[in-house]
Design a protein that fits this description.
The protein has helices at residues 30-46, 52-66, 69-75, 108-117, 120-137, 149-176, 186-193, 203-209, 236-243, 247-290, and strands at 2-7, 13-18, 94-98, 180-184, 199-201, 214-216. By secondary structure, it is α/β, with parallel strands linked by helices. The strands form two sheets. Strands 2-1-3-4 form a four-stranded mixed beta sheet, sandwiched between helices. A two-stranded antiparallel sheet has the order 5-6. Helices cover 56% and strands 10% of the residues. Helix 3 packs antiparallel against helix 10 and helix 8 (203-209) crosses helix 10 (247-290). A hairpin with a 5-residue loop joins strand 1 (2-7) and strand 2 (13-18). It comes from Ascodesmis nigricans. Pfam families: Mit_KHE1.
């Protein structure tokens, strides 16, 4: 396995695991069989021209894209049970590729550890609630023709959180066993070098154009530089190509899209709060003049 650290913004990083030599078992597990069957069925429904299958897959894909990119990243890490027992330490360290312009070698182990543990409680809690909810929605199976959508959604979410927890456990074991080998990637670094590292999100332009705008922080006097994007969605394909990891393109696009939307929402709240403060200030000044 190889790990990739892809900084999305100045505060958030995507981690992705690539399996180098996937061992195929003689007898696939029940989990593998169920996953393959579900994937084939979903693909078949996506090819439908109309009907509830088409509606379901269209809206289902929207829900899947709303799953946090951090969860998708942890799910890319293979669970320990599919590799080796926890008490067996692999002989070769796991390479961690990163852009040296953004991250330093000393930071890599701590970043991996943080990404492995910061959402563990959330995934465990939501997995439990998904499992608890499945018996509650089970009676929907009595509805003819249409499958029990709420049940299968909760089943998928429980499985998804379990995979994220498994990936988290694997990463933490690598961290504690000192089995992480940071590898600076010059190809990845070249992409980040093209981006102005002083770029920040300008709230005014953001609200005006409904998209993230890039400006140079040196052009203005900013008391506090907000979180800034380090990648654009258009660069996701190039990252996957230079690293020769096709699956990474989708993950990068999703991560950039989600962070962009979050920054947009945050900027709107800041601007709205500022407008309220300005109006309040004007009212207070008028009251003082009236007195």
């Amino acid at each position: 396995m190889r790990l990739f650290l892809i900084p999305i913004s100045t505060r958030r990083t995507l981690i992705f695991g690539q399996r180098l030599h996937k061992v195929t078992a003689a007898q696939p597990s029940l989990t593998d069989k169920a996953s393959a069957k579900a994937a084939n069925l979903w693909m078949k429904w996506e090819m439908s021209d109309k009907g509830w299958q088409k509606w379901l897959t269209k809206n289902g894909n929207k829900l899947l894209n709303q799953i946090p990119f951090e969860e998708w990243g942890l799910k890319s890490i293979p669970p320990l049970s599919s590799r080796k027992p926890q008490n067996e330490v692999q002989a070769k360290k796991v390479e961690v590729f990163y852009p040296p312009t953004i991250l330093s070698e000393k930071q890599i182990p701590e970043i991996v550890h943080k990404l492995a543990t910061e959402r563990r409680g959330l995934h465990r809690q939501r997995m439990i609630w998904s499992i608890i909810g499945m018996p509650i929605v089970a009676p929907f199976a009595l509805v003819p023709v249409i499958p029990n959508i709420p049940f299968f959604y909760l089943l998928y979410r429980a499985f998804s959180h379990w995979k994220a927890l498994s990936g988290s456990t694997h990463l933490e074991l690598l961290y504690k066993s000192n089995m992480l080998a940071p590898v600076p990637s010059t190809k990845l670094d070249a992409i980040y070098r093209r981006v102005n590292m002083n770029a920040i999100v300008d709230t005014g332009r953001l609200l005006k154009d409904s998209k993230v705008e890039w400006i140079d922080a040196r052009e203005g006097n900013y008391k506090e530089v907000p979180e800034a994007l380090l990648l654009k969605e258009s660069e996701a394909q190039e990252i996957s190509q230079v690293l020769d990891v096709p699956a990474l393109a989708v993950e990068c696009e999703r991560a950039v899209r989600q962070v962009t939307q979050q920054l947009h929402t945050k900027a709107e709240k800041v601007a709205q709060k500022q407008r309220v403060n300005d109006v309040t200030k004007e009212i207070n000044e008028e009251d003082k003049k009236a007195l």
